[in-house]
Amino acid sequence: MNDVDDLEPILQRARRRTVWIAAIGAVVGGIGGLALALTDDHGLHGVLTVIGFACGVGGIAGALSLILTVSTYSPDLRVPLAGLDRATRSRINRSIRAGVPVAPPDGELARRGADRARALALLLPYQTAQLALLYVGIGGVQLPQLTSDDPWQFWFSRIFLLAIVLVGAFFALFTRRKVAAARRYLRAVEAQRLSSIPNAGSAPSVR
Questions:
Q1: Would you say 85 and 145 are in contact if contact means Cβ atoms under 8 Å apart?
Q2: What is the dihedral sign for C-alpha 68, 70, 71, 73?
Q3: Are 44 and 147 within 8 A, CB to CB?
Q4: What confidence tens digit (pLDDT) does each residue in 123-168 have?
Q5: How many CB atoms lie within 10 A of CB 168?
Q6: Nearest-CA neighbor of 120 among 77, 81, 82?
Q7: To 10 degrees, what angle do helices 44-73 and 108-142 make?
Q8: If DSSP codes are grouped into helix, strand and coil, which group holds residue 140?
Q9: What is the model's pTM?
């Protein structure tokens, strides 16, 4: 498993790179959409074409930027539980969800639980961002179809976009809860560690 101190700056660099790539992609897509709209339609369809192209190119470019980093480090989510039986893996996952450190605090399972929580807290937001960018890119392509005269394209675009929004919102909420639980677990582990240090945080008495 990659050390957390090494993994965090790698993910931060990937985030900064992705922001730039997605922004440039959105500008390029918007310019392409504008060129198409000016030759095709000046009404609402033209506006949706510009927005759709910007979202499509920017979202796909951003998702592709993240995919290499996320796919490289996603196995770190499974490494802390490797070699454990199903019951033990479930015990660690339940402890993380509940925010209660695995006992004993100095045992092998406690170390694995902390590693698992750190990996979740670091990597899950990037997996969610990758999925969100991908959905924005895919959904952007459908925006101009919202004003289509073809009944099939008219209804398909609406159903498709609604499905993407619902699935994306569910996944974002689910991931947010897991990240919050992992961070709460890490705070509990740190509080447990500090409480085990004699006179931790106490100031010397003054006569």
A1: no
A2: positive
A3: yes
A4: 999 999 999 999 999 999 899 888 888 888 889 999 999 999 999 9
A5: 17
A6: 77
A7: 160
A8: helix
A9: 0.81
